[in-house]
Amino acid sequence: xxxxxxxxxxxxxxxxxxxxxxxxxxxxxxxxxxxxxxxxxxxxxxxxxxxxxxxxxxxxxxxxxxxxxxxxxxxxxxxxxxxxxxxxxxxxxxxxxxxxxxxxxxxxxxxxxxxxxxxxxxxxxxxxxxxxxxxxxxxxxxxxxxxxxxxxxxxxxxxxxxxxxxxxxxxxxxxxxxxxxxxxxxxxxxxxxxxx
Length: 196
What we know:
The chain is of the alpha+beta class. Helices cover 23% and strands 35% of the residues.
């Protein structure tokens, strides 16, 4: 029995639409977000001229409650990080729009650090967080990519490794995890009033 070509086409089209709908929310796909944010992350790393630097002594579980201080230069922020302070560099486009914020959250003992890069859209909403937690608690590196659309998380990719390697590792149930905080809008950043 031959299956009509039109029927096969309809089945394939339906399957494609179903798969597309699974990974698409509000017009953003994970692939589109990743591609756009990779470009923005690269621009931010290359353009140090349009960055503003901050540091804070991490006192609270919620970094937005810490006292973030605007720093004069990247070298001052680097010195603050050596003293156990959390740091942030804010990359603004030439139109003074926040595009990328690179946080480095750490505790004063230096037994964990979470480097988290936040990518924001033109309307100020969060698109992606790329995070790398290195922790002596459990001898582990945890790499996460969070993707957001319409203010909601649409995907999370997570990989656990032995600290400082790319060797996969199963984490113990008692692993002390320090995921990055989620700032869904530029206006939620803990130092937003100090950007002006």
